[in-house]
Amino acid sequence: MAAEKMALAKALNESLRRALDSDPKVLVMGEDVGKLGGVFRVTDGLQKDFGESRVIDTPLAESGIVGTAIGLALRGYRPVVEIQFDGFVFPAYDQIVTQLAKMHARSLGKVKLPVVVRIPYGGGIGAVEHHSESPESLFAHVAGLKVVSPSNASDAYWMMQQAIQSDDPVIFFEPKRRYWDKAEVNTEAIPGPLHKARVVREGTDLTLAAYGPMVKTCLEVADAAAEEGRSLEVLDLRSVSPLDFDSVQASVEKTRRLVVVHEAPVFFGSGAEIAARITERCFYHLEAPVLRVGGYHAPYPPARLEEEYLPGLDRVLDAVDRALAY
């Protein structure tokens, strides 16, 4: 059956399975991805079906994982590496930004590194320190990296396929608190472009732009606003780098107001770049300043306080009210 309702984590599992089955050069690597099947069970059953030489349990050494993947990519493989939690990526940051991102340019286009770095990210699961970070802007700032984040199971399935097939390195941020959200997945569909934003709810009064875990929150905000007679458009950006500014512009030219929402801190976040670009592009269309809603410029708090830190319904609705008040 081509279409099936499945959780986002299951969709990723099925996508990885399809990639392993269709291309012997695809490898899956990471801490506990094999026998355990990953801490979120995204790689469950893959080592059993494809063997320890294709689904590889690595030592606890993120720089070694990414460094080994770079070497494998140089030999023609397509490694998919898992960073077990968002906050664990920083030991590998040097490898990612100085080697993985730069090799194509350094070799004048002769060398390609088709590596996918999977990173479960964001909060909302009551985790301990270093398990709820949102570092996407750190990677989006680096030329040579593609940075994407699906918000639903269907996108998770197809965006993973496209990331693995890309000849450029892709940082694939998986919204961990949405792993268990289910949606219809058509495994025989023709997917749209990897870096194309998508309007997931039409509206006329204001645009909410988000990606990853915040798309569901924005849809809930749009439902709440509709009860007050307000029509909000929700735009799923899907990709942080490159970013589909044309789709954002088209939406804003229609609604004339924009609120950008992400879990990462607002300070120097991706929303700042979107706000600046859209202000440049849509200056004569905007009827209010572009507003941003996100995390605070502070370390991610202990689990009992994370609901105060994360952007939620009330905080986003407050920004909507302020934008509509102009």
Characterization of this structure:
With about 325 residues, the protein is an alpha/beta fold. It has twelve helices and 14 strands. A seven-stranded mixed beta sheet has the order 3-2-4-5-7-6-12, with helices on both faces. It has a five-stranded mixed beta sheet with strand order 9-11-10-13-14, sandwiched between helices. The chain has a two-stranded antiparallel sheet with strand order 1-8. Strand 13, helix 10 (about 270-280) and strand 14 (about 290-295) form a beta-alpha-beta unit. Helix 8 packs across helix 12. It is globular, with a radius of gyration of 19 Å. It starts with a strand and ends with a helix. The relative contact order is 0.12. The model has no long low-confidence stretch (mean pLDDT about 95).
